[in-house]
């Protein structure tokens, strides 16, 4: 009897919201993968240009050391920037939630 009083749109709107959320999650995942791929491409390009002056059949030990250090610095910098950005977003979000509407 309780089903009789339910709105016929409630279950379909719930399905619609769930579908929208699933699509948004999929887009977010694809964007994250694209961003990670772009990061890897930028990192490889920059470090290769900086460290490999005379391309050959194999890397010299000095080139290997340079690449290792360059990649480490690049990732360390990326992690610092990412953490700072996420912290800033969280702070702005909490400030906007705590500010009363006028």
UniProtKB/TrEMBL annotation:
Major place of localization? mitochondrion
Tim10-like domain residues: 26-85
Alphabetical GO CC annotations of the entry are: mitochondrial inner membrane; mitochondrial intermembrane space chaperone complex
Keyword line: Chaperone, Disulfide bond, Membrane, Metal-binding, Mitochondrion, Mitochondrion inner membrane, Protein transport, Translocation, Transport, Zinc
InterPro entries attached to this UniProt entry: Tim10-like, Tim10-like_dom_sf
Its localization reads: Mitochondrion inner membrane
An example molecular function term from Gene Ontology annotations? metal ion binding
Membrane topology qualifier: Peripheral membrane protein
The residue stretches assigned to a coiled coil in this entry are none
Q: Source organism's superkingdom?
A: Eukaryota
Biological process terms from the Gene Ontology for this record are: protein insertion into mitochondrial inner membrane; protein transport
Domain remarks: The twin CX3C motif contains 4 conserved Cys residues that form 2 disulfide bonds in the mitochondrial intermembrane space.
Question: What job does the chain carry out?
Answer: Mitochondrial intermembrane chaperone that participates in the import and insertion of some multi-pass transmembrane proteins into the mitochondrial inner membrane. Also required for the transfer of beta-barrel precursors from the TOM complex to the sorting and assembly machinery (SAM complex) of the outer membrane. Acts as a chaperone-like protein that protects the hydrophobic precursors from aggregation and guide them through the mitochondrial intermembrane space.
The family this protein is said to belong to: Belongs to the small Tim family.
Subunit structure, interactors included: Heterohexamer.
Specify the protein name: Mitochondrial import inner membrane translocase subunit
Which organism encodes this protein? Lentinula aciculospora
| Species classification | Eukaryota, Fungi, Dikarya, Basidiomycota, Agaricomycotina
